[in-house]
Design brief:
- Its cofactor is pyridoxal 5'-phosphate.
- InterPro entries: Aminotransferase_I/II_large (IPR004839), DapL/ALD1 (IPR019942), PyrdxlP-dep_Trfase (IPR015424), PyrdxlP-dep_Trfase_major (IPR015421), PyrdxlP-dep_Trfase_small (IPR015422).
- GO terms for molecular function: pyridoxal phosphate binding; transaminase activity.
- This is Putative LL-diaminopimelate aminotransferase.
- By secondary structure, this protein is α+β, with helices and mostly antiparallel strands.
- The protein folds into 3 domains: about 45 residues, no CATH class; about 120 residues, Aspartate Aminotransferase, domain 1, CATH 3.90.1150.10; about 200 residues, 3-Layer(aba) Sandwich (Aspartate Aminotransferase, domain 2), CATH 3.40.640.10.
- It is built from 12 helices and 12 strands.
- The protein has a 4-stranded mixed β-sheet, sandwiched between helices. A 4-stranded antiparallel β-sheet has the order 8-9-12-11.
- A hairpin with a 5-residue loop joins strand 1 and strand 2.
- Helix 4 runs antiparallel to helix 9, helix 6 packs parallel to helix 7 and helix 10 runs parallel beside helix 12.
Length: about 400
Protein backbone atom coordinates (compact mmCIF):
# COMPACT_ATOMS: atom_id res chain seq x y z
CA UNK A 1 0.00 0.00 0.00
CA UNK A 2 2.77 2.45 0.97
CA UNK A 3 4.72 1.53 -2.18
CA UNK A 4 1.66 2.32 -4.33
CA UNK A 5 1.19 5.66 -2.60
CA UNK A 6 4.80 6.64 -3.24
CA UNK A 7 4.65 5.50 -6.85
CA UNK A 8 1.54 7.57 -7.44
CA UNK A 9 3.11 10.60 -5.78
CA UNK A 10 6.04 10.46 -8.17
CA UNK A 11 3.77 10.01 -11.19
CA UNK A 12 1.91 13.23 -10.51
CA UNK A 13 5.00 15.09 -9.29
CA UNK A 14 6.88 17.63 -11.33
CA UNK A 15 10.05 15.83 -10.24
CA UNK A 16 9.44 12.68 -12.31
CA UNK A 17 12.13 13.65 -14.81
CA UNK A 18 14.82 13.78 -12.14
CA UNK A 19 17.12 10.83 -11.63
CA UNK A 20 16.27 9.28 -8.25
CA UNK A 21 18.78 8.23 -5.64
CA UNK A 22 18.61 4.70 -4.37
CA UNK A 23 17.08 4.82 -0.92
CA UNK A 24 14.35 6.64 0.93
CA UNK A 25 13.78 6.47 4.65
CA UNK A 26 10.02 6.39 5.09
CA UNK A 27 7.56 5.91 7.86
CA UNK A 28 5.64 2.67 7.40
CA UNK A 29 1.92 2.61 7.96
CA UNK A 30 2.56 0.84 11.28
CA UNK A 31 4.61 3.79 12.53
CA UNK A 32 8.01 2.08 12.43
CA UNK A 33 10.90 3.25 10.33
CA UNK A 34 11.96 1.10 7.41
CA UNK A 35 14.63 1.50 4.76
CA UNK A 36 13.07 1.05 1.33
CA UNK A 37 14.89 0.51 -1.96
CA UNK A 38 12.95 3.30 -3.48
CA UNK A 39 13.53 6.89 -4.48
CA UNK A 40 14.95 10.05 -3.00
CA UNK A 41 13.74 13.27 -4.55
CA UNK A 42 16.17 16.02 -5.44
CA UNK A 43 14.11 18.53 -3.49
CA UNK A 44 16.27 19.97 -0.73
CA UNK A 45 14.90 20.34 2.74
CA UNK A 46 14.31 23.91 3.84
CA UNK A 47 17.25 25.28 5.76
CA UNK A 48 14.75 27.04 8.00
CA UNK A 49 13.23 23.73 9.07
CA UNK A 50 16.71 22.38 9.80
CA UNK A 51 17.28 25.36 12.09
CA UNK A 52 14.34 24.43 14.30
CA UNK A 53 14.91 22.90 17.68
CA UNK A 54 14.57 19.12 17.92
CA UNK A 55 10.89 19.16 18.80
CA UNK A 56 8.05 21.53 19.61
CA UNK A 57 7.45 21.80 23.35
CA UNK A 58 3.89 20.57 23.69
CA UNK A 59 4.19 17.38 21.57
CA UNK A 60 7.28 16.58 23.65
CA UNK A 61 5.21 16.89 26.83
CA UNK A 62 2.60 14.56 25.31
CA UNK A 63 5.33 12.07 24.45
CA UNK A 64 6.58 12.02 28.02
CA UNK A 65 3.04 11.64 29.29
CA UNK A 66 2.62 8.59 27.07
CA UNK A 67 5.87 7.07 28.34
CA UNK A 68 4.76 7.65 31.93
CA UNK A 69 1.38 6.02 31.31
CA UNK A 70 3.14 2.98 29.80
CA UNK A 71 5.36 2.76 32.89
CA UNK A 72 2.45 3.22 35.31
CA UNK A 73 -0.65 1.88 33.52
CA UNK A 74 -2.81 2.07 36.66
CA UNK A 75 -1.85 5.63 37.59
CA UNK A 76 -4.39 8.42 37.24
CA UNK A 77 -2.43 11.18 35.56
CA UNK A 78 -3.61 14.70 36.32
CA UNK A 79 -2.89 17.02 33.40
CA UNK A 80 -1.95 20.50 34.54
CA UNK A 81 0.43 21.03 31.65
CA UNK A 82 -0.61 22.04 28.15
CA UNK A 83 -3.66 23.90 29.40
CA UNK A 84 -6.67 22.48 27.63
CA UNK A 85 -10.03 23.70 28.88
CA UNK A 86 -12.11 21.21 30.84
CA UNK A 87 -15.55 22.69 31.47
CA UNK A 88 -18.47 22.41 29.02
CA UNK A 89 -19.25 25.26 26.66
CA UNK A 90 -22.34 27.09 28.00
CA UNK A 91 -25.61 25.86 26.49
CA UNK A 92 -26.58 29.21 24.97
CA UNK A 93 -23.35 29.19 22.97
CA UNK A 94 -23.40 25.53 21.96
CA UNK A 95 -27.06 25.90 20.96
CA UNK A 96 -26.22 28.81 18.66
CA UNK A 97 -23.66 26.65 16.85
CA UNK A 98 -26.10 23.74 16.67
CA UNK A 99 -28.78 26.02 15.22
CA UNK A 100 -26.38 27.30 12.57
CA UNK A 101 -25.33 23.74 11.72
CA UNK A 102 -28.95 22.62 11.30
CA UNK A 103 -29.70 25.67 9.18
CA UNK A 104 -27.22 24.35 6.63
CA UNK A 105 -29.61 21.47 5.96
CA UNK A 106 -32.29 23.85 4.68
CA UNK A 107 -32.57 25.82 1.48
CA UNK A 108 -33.26 29.01 3.36
CA UNK A 109 -30.48 28.60 5.88
CA UNK A 110 -27.67 27.21 3.75
CA UNK A 111 -24.57 29.34 3.27
CA UNK A 112 -21.28 28.56 1.57
CA UNK A 113 -18.12 30.63 1.43
CA UNK A 114 -18.17 33.72 3.59
CA UNK A 115 -15.90 36.73 3.67
CA UNK A 116 -12.29 35.69 4.22
CA UNK A 117 -11.95 38.42 6.83
CA UNK A 118 -14.90 37.04 8.82
CA UNK A 119 -18.57 37.79 9.20
CA UNK A 120 -19.29 41.51 9.51
CA UNK A 121 -21.59 41.01 12.51
CA UNK A 122 -18.88 39.23 14.52
CA UNK A 123 -16.18 41.71 13.56
CA UNK A 124 -18.42 44.57 14.70
CA UNK A 125 -19.29 42.79 17.95
CA UNK A 126 -15.61 42.23 18.79
CA UNK A 127 -14.73 45.88 18.08
CA UNK A 128 -17.58 47.07 20.29
CA UNK A 129 -17.06 44.56 23.11
CA UNK A 130 -13.29 44.62 23.55
CA UNK A 131 -12.18 47.91 22.02
CA UNK A 132 -14.87 50.36 23.03
CA UNK A 133 -13.52 53.91 23.15
CA UNK A 134 -10.25 52.70 21.56
CA UNK A 135 -11.11 53.82 18.04
CA UNK A 136 -10.68 50.28 16.67
CA UNK A 137 -12.82 49.94 13.55
CA UNK A 138 -14.54 46.70 12.67
CA UNK A 139 -12.75 46.66 9.30
CA UNK A 140 -9.48 46.28 11.24
CA UNK A 141 -10.67 43.06 12.91
CA UNK A 142 -9.87 39.81 11.06
CA UNK A 143 -11.59 36.61 12.22
CA UNK A 144 -9.47 33.46 12.17
CA UNK A 145 -9.27 29.85 13.30
CA UNK A 146 -7.16 30.70 16.33
CA UNK A 147 -4.33 32.86 17.60
CA UNK A 148 -1.57 30.35 16.87
CA UNK A 149 -2.46 30.31 13.17
CA UNK A 150 -2.46 34.10 13.11
CA UNK A 151 1.01 34.22 14.65
CA UNK A 152 2.28 32.54 11.48
CA UNK A 153 0.12 34.63 9.14
CA UNK A 154 1.47 37.82 10.66
CA UNK A 155 5.00 36.51 10.09
CA UNK A 156 4.24 36.49 6.35
CA UNK A 157 4.04 40.28 6.41
CA UNK A 158 7.76 40.76 6.91
CA UNK A 159 10.88 39.64 5.10
CA UNK A 160 13.49 37.29 6.53
CA UNK A 161 15.82 40.26 7.06
CA UNK A 162 13.82 41.67 9.97
CA UNK A 163 14.86 41.22 13.57
CA UNK A 164 12.34 39.64 15.93
CA UNK A 165 12.50 40.50 19.63
CA UNK A 166 10.57 38.25 22.02
CA UNK A 167 10.19 38.38 25.76
CA UNK A 168 11.99 35.73 27.77
CA UNK A 169 10.26 33.41 28.58
CA UNK A 170 7.84 33.43 25.66
CA UNK A 171 5.20 31.28 23.96
CA UNK A 172 7.23 28.86 21.78
CA UNK A 173 5.19 29.55 18.64
CA UNK A 174 6.63 33.08 18.39
CA UNK A 175 10.17 31.73 18.23
CA UNK A 176 9.56 28.64 16.11
CA UNK A 177 7.44 30.46 13.54
CA UNK A 178 10.15 33.10 13.24
CA UNK A 179 12.71 30.39 12.51
CA UNK A 180 10.43 28.73 9.94
CA UNK A 181 10.17 32.06 8.11
CA UNK A 182 13.94 32.39 7.95
CA UNK A 183 14.64 34.67 10.88
CA UNK A 184 16.80 32.36 12.98
CA UNK A 185 19.92 34.52 12.76
CA UNK A 186 22.09 34.47 15.86
CA UNK A 187 19.92 34.22 18.95
CA UNK A 188 20.62 37.09 21.33
CA UNK A 189 19.43 36.17 24.78
CA UNK A 190 20.24 39.58 26.23
CA UNK A 191 17.80 42.47 26.16
CA UNK A 192 20.18 44.83 24.39
CA UNK A 193 18.68 45.00 20.84
CA UNK A 194 15.86 47.32 22.02
CA UNK A 195 18.04 50.45 22.03
CA UNK A 196 18.89 51.82 25.48
CA UNK A 197 16.98 51.70 28.72
CA UNK A 198 15.73 55.24 28.07
CA UNK A 199 13.54 53.84 25.30
CA UNK A 200 11.57 51.82 27.83
CA UNK A 201 10.92 54.14 30.77
CA UNK A 202 9.27 53.02 33.97
CA UNK A 203 5.57 53.90 33.87
CA UNK A 204 2.65 53.60 36.29
CA UNK A 205 0.79 50.26 35.96
CA UNK A 206 -2.45 52.00 35.00
CA UNK A 207 -0.88 53.45 31.85
CA UNK A 208 -0.36 51.50 28.61
CA UNK A 209 3.24 50.60 27.81
CA UNK A 210 4.91 52.78 25.16
CA UNK A 211 5.41 51.39 21.68
CA UNK A 212 8.61 52.07 19.74
CA UNK A 213 8.06 53.82 16.40
CA UNK A 214 10.93 51.91 14.79
CA UNK A 215 9.26 48.52 15.06
CA UNK A 216 5.96 46.70 14.64
CA UNK A 217 4.71 45.49 18.01
CA UNK A 218 2.67 42.31 18.39
CA UNK A 219 0.67 41.95 21.58
CA UNK A 220 -1.50 39.16 22.93
CA UNK A 221 -3.86 39.97 25.81
CA UNK A 222 -4.08 37.62 28.81
CA UNK A 223 -6.44 34.67 28.16
CA UNK A 224 -8.85 35.69 30.92
CA UNK A 225 -9.29 39.33 29.92
CA UNK A 226 -13.12 39.24 29.53
CA UNK A 227 -13.85 38.64 33.21
CA UNK A 228 -11.06 40.74 34.68
CA UNK A 229 -11.20 44.34 35.76
CA UNK A 230 -7.57 44.52 36.89
CA UNK A 231 -5.84 44.11 33.52
CA UNK A 232 -3.58 47.06 32.67
CA UNK A 233 -4.69 48.70 29.42
CA UNK A 234 -3.06 47.42 26.25
CA UNK A 235 -1.19 49.68 23.80
CA UNK A 236 -4.36 49.91 21.70
CA UNK A 237 -5.92 52.06 24.44
CA UNK A 238 -3.55 54.87 23.57
CA UNK A 239 -4.91 57.14 20.82
CA UNK A 240 -1.43 57.67 19.40
CA UNK A 241 -0.05 54.12 19.60
CA UNK A 242 -0.83 51.28 17.24
CA UNK A 243 0.07 47.60 17.34
CA UNK A 244 -1.08 44.30 15.87
CA UNK A 245 -3.10 42.47 18.50
CA UNK A 246 -3.71 38.70 18.29
CA UNK A 247 -6.51 37.24 20.41
CA UNK A 248 -8.44 34.01 20.79
CA UNK A 249 -11.70 32.52 22.04
CA UNK A 250 -9.85 29.37 23.12
CA UNK A 251 -9.40 29.99 26.82
CA UNK A 252 -12.09 32.48 27.81
CA UNK A 253 -14.85 30.75 25.82
CA UNK A 254 -13.61 27.15 25.98
CA UNK A 255 -13.05 27.03 22.21
CA UNK A 256 -9.77 25.08 22.30
CA UNK A 257 -11.34 22.40 20.11
CA UNK A 258 -13.79 24.66 18.30
CA UNK A 259 -11.07 27.05 17.03
CA UNK A 260 -11.83 30.76 16.71
CA UNK A 261 -9.74 33.89 17.12
CA UNK A 262 -9.16 37.36 15.74
CA UNK A 263 -6.38 39.77 14.92
CA UNK A 264 -6.56 43.56 14.93
CA UNK A 265 -4.40 45.35 12.34
CA UNK A 266 -4.82 49.14 12.70
CA UNK A 267 -5.07 51.09 9.46
CA UNK A 268 -2.60 53.66 10.80
CA UNK A 269 0.19 51.07 11.03
CA UNK A 270 2.47 51.33 8.00
CA UNK A 271 5.77 50.04 6.64
CA UNK A 272 8.79 52.32 6.42
CA UNK A 273 7.66 53.35 2.91
CA UNK A 274 4.24 54.43 4.16
CA UNK A 275 2.29 51.48 2.70
CA UNK A 276 -0.50 50.33 5.08
CA UNK A 277 0.26 46.96 6.65
CA UNK A 278 -3.44 46.14 6.88
CA UNK A 279 -3.67 45.92 3.07
CA UNK A 280 -0.98 43.25 2.97
CA UNK A 281 -2.58 41.35 5.83
CA UNK A 282 -5.89 41.39 3.98
CA UNK A 283 -4.13 39.95 0.94
CA UNK A 284 -2.51 37.23 3.05
CA UNK A 285 -5.84 36.27 4.60
CA UNK A 286 -7.52 36.11 1.18
CA UNK A 287 -4.66 34.08 -0.29
CA UNK A 288 -3.84 31.68 2.56
CA UNK A 289 -7.12 31.41 4.45
CA UNK A 290 -10.67 30.95 3.27
CA UNK A 291 -12.38 32.23 6.37
CA UNK A 292 -13.43 30.73 9.68
CA UNK A 293 -16.28 28.23 9.86
CA UNK A 294 -19.69 29.88 9.72
CA UNK A 295 -20.84 27.47 12.45
CA UNK A 296 -18.01 28.52 14.74
CA UNK A 297 -18.57 32.21 14.06
CA UNK A 298 -22.18 31.78 15.19
CA UNK A 299 -20.76 30.51 18.46
CA UNK A 300 -18.48 33.53 18.66
CA UNK A 301 -21.42 35.88 18.28
CA UNK A 302 -23.27 34.00 21.02
CA UNK A 303 -20.24 34.33 23.33
CA UNK A 304 -20.38 38.09 23.02
CA UNK A 305 -24.10 38.39 23.66
CA UNK A 306 -25.15 39.52 27.14
CA UNK A 307 -26.26 36.02 28.10
CA UNK A 308 -23.25 34.34 26.58
CA UNK A 309 -20.75 36.70 28.17
CA UNK A 310 -22.26 36.15 31.60
CA UNK A 311 -22.15 32.38 31.11
CA UNK A 312 -18.53 32.48 29.96
CA UNK A 313 -17.58 34.63 32.96
CA UNK A 314 -18.95 31.99 35.32
CA UNK A 315 -16.73 29.35 33.74
CA UNK A 316 -13.73 31.66 34.01
CA UNK A 317 -14.45 32.20 37.69
CA UNK A 318 -14.32 28.41 38.10
CA UNK A 319 -10.80 28.35 36.66
CA UNK A 320 -9.79 31.31 38.83
CA UNK A 321 -10.92 29.47 41.93
CA UNK A 322 -8.89 26.49 40.76
CA UNK A 323 -5.87 28.76 40.51
CA UNK A 324 -6.39 29.98 44.07
CA UNK A 325 -6.47 26.38 45.33
CA UNK A 326 -3.20 25.57 43.59
CA UNK A 327 -1.54 28.83 44.68
CA UNK A 328 -2.47 28.07 48.28
CA UNK A 329 -0.97 24.58 47.99
CA UNK A 330 2.36 25.80 46.63
CA UNK A 331 2.66 28.82 48.91
CA UNK A 332 1.80 26.59 51.85
CA UNK A 333 5.03 24.78 51.01
CA UNK A 334 6.95 28.06 51.08
CA UNK A 335 7.28 28.42 47.32
CA UNK A 336 7.08 31.59 45.27
CA UNK A 337 4.14 31.53 42.85
CA UNK A 338 3.33 34.03 40.11
CA UNK A 339 0.28 34.40 37.87
CA UNK A 340 -3.11 32.74 38.12
CA UNK A 341 -5.08 35.99 38.19
CA UNK A 342 -5.42 37.21 34.61
CA UNK A 343 -4.23 34.00 33.00
CA UNK A 344 -5.01 30.37 33.86
CA UNK A 345 -1.35 29.54 34.54
CA UNK A 346 0.87 29.62 37.61
CA UNK A 347 4.64 29.93 37.48
CA UNK A 348 6.21 28.16 40.47
CA UNK A 349 9.82 28.85 41.38
CA UNK A 350 12.27 26.12 42.38
CA UNK A 351 15.49 28.13 42.91
CA UNK A 352 18.65 26.50 41.65
CA UNK A 353 16.85 23.57 40.07
CA UNK A 354 16.53 22.40 36.47
CA UNK A 355 12.95 22.91 35.35
CA UNK A 356 13.03 19.68 33.32
CA UNK A 357 14.25 17.77 36.38
CA UNK A 358 11.53 19.29 38.54
CA UNK A 359 8.96 18.43 35.86
CA UNK A 360 10.22 14.82 35.75
CA UNK A 361 10.28 14.37 39.51
CA UNK A 362 6.80 15.80 40.02
CA UNK A 363 5.48 13.51 37.28
CA UNK A 364 7.28 10.50 38.76
CA UNK A 365 6.19 11.06 42.36
CA UNK A 366 2.70 12.56 41.99
CA UNK A 367 1.59 11.54 38.46
CA UNK A 368 0.89 15.24 37.80
CA UNK A 369 1.80 16.69 34.42
CA UNK A 370 3.16 20.25 34.39
CA UNK A 371 5.33 22.20 31.93
CA UNK A 372 9.02 22.93 32.51
CA UNK A 373 9.59 26.67 32.33
CA UNK A 374 12.76 26.17 30.30
CA UNK A 375 10.54 25.11 27.41
CA UNK A 376 9.49 28.76 27.07
CA UNK A 377 13.04 30.05 26.97
CA UNK A 378 16.11 30.44 29.20
CA UNK A 379 14.19 32.85 31.43
CA UNK A 380 11.90 30.01 32.45
CA UNK A 381 14.68 27.93 33.96
CA UNK A 382 14.04 26.85 37.58
CA UNK A 383 10.29 27.36 37.09
CA UNK A 384 7.43 25.06 36.20
CA UNK A 385 4.18 26.26 34.66
CA UNK A 386 1.00 24.82 36.11
CA UNK A 387 -2.42 25.08 34.48
CA UNK A 388 -5.56 25.79 36.49
CA UNK A 389 -7.83 24.13 33.94
CA UNK A 390 -9.64 21.11 35.34
CA UNK A 391 -12.70 19.88 37.17
CA UNK A 392 -12.80 21.03 40.80
CA UNK A 393 -12.37 17.53 42.20
CA UNK A 394 -9.32 17.01 39.97
CA UNK A 395 -7.73 20.25 41.19
CA UNK A 396 -8.41 19.34 44.82
CA UNK A 397 -6.79 15.95 44.27
CA UNK A 398 -3.80 17.61 42.62
CA UNK A 399 -3.45 19.99 45.57
CA UNK A 400 -3.52 17.05 47.96
CA UNK A 401 -0.86 15.12 46.04
CA UNK A 402 1.41 18.13 45.72
CA UNK A 403 1.12 19.07 49.37
CA UNK A 404 1.95 15.58 50.61
CA UNK A 405 4.72 14.84 48.10
CA UNK A 406 6.64 18.07 47.58
CA UNK A 407 7.60 18.21 51.26
CA UNK A 408 9.79 15.16 50.64
CA UNK A 409 11.53 16.51 47.55
CA UNK A 410 15.00 17.95 47.43
CA UNK A 411 15.27 20.04 44.26
CA UNK A 412 18.54 21.80 45.06
Amino acid sequence: MLKQMLDYAFQVSSCTSLQPKTKLLVESLKGTKETKNDQWTKVMRSVNMENLRTGYLFPEISRREYEHSEKYPDAKIIKLGIGDTSEPIPDCIASAMAKQAMALSTVEGYSGYGDEQGEKALRKRIAEKFYKNMDVKWEEVFISDGAQCDISRVQMLFGSHVTVAVQNPSFPAYIDSSVIFGRAGNLQEQNEPISSSSALPTIPPEQPPPLPNFAVSLISPPPMVPSSSTIPPTPLTSPTAVAIEISSFSKFAGFTGVRLGWTVVPKELSYSNGFPIVKDYDRIVCTCFNGASNIVQAGGLACLSTEGFQAVSKVLNHYKENAKILIEAFRGLGMEVYGGENAPYLWVHFPGSSSWEVFAEILEKTHILTIPGRGFGPGGESYIRVSSFGHRQTILEASKRLTSSLRKFNFN
